[in-house]
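Page 47, continued from p. 46.
Same chain as before, 181 aa.
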Amino acid sequence: MKKSYNDKGISLIEVLIVVVIIGVMTGAVTMTFSIVHSRNPSNCISNIDSLLEEVKSEAMSKERPPYLVIYQSSDEAYPGYYAAKTTSLASYTEQPQSDTKIGTNRIKLQITLSDHSVIDIAEKEVFITFDRASGSMKNCSVAVKGTVPVEVSTPERIAATGGGRESTIRIIAETGKHFIE
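Result:
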């Protein structure tokens, strides 16, 4: 006697295996994107910390101390946050193609001042410099893009937030020291 099987469809087990495989692959891709995007704030803060150290060294060794300008580019070809060094305290003309890119638009970059006010970099340009004699951080200046910078108090903290993570630089203005938290 011959047994006959009906091979015209797929079994429930086969469907479940395919669904499980798709679920595992989706989870892996989601985790990968989450890990990549959570690195953005720490990379941005690391870039700013290096630039702060560079500007402080130059400020103490040169007659005309430079300013570190931090801004968000409005140029669609170069989206993101940028930093540049300038010796003039005038509204900075952004040049994202030649300035140092410090972060992407996926993060939010803010500076907290000693008077506890918060500056959102997306809306303004921030000028930071150090005193030549002592190395202490001077009051920073802030400008709405295209206007004259106004002096405000010293920065206490620079924070980058994105991907559910936050990275910060704590600044001790009296000594000019800064460190990543």
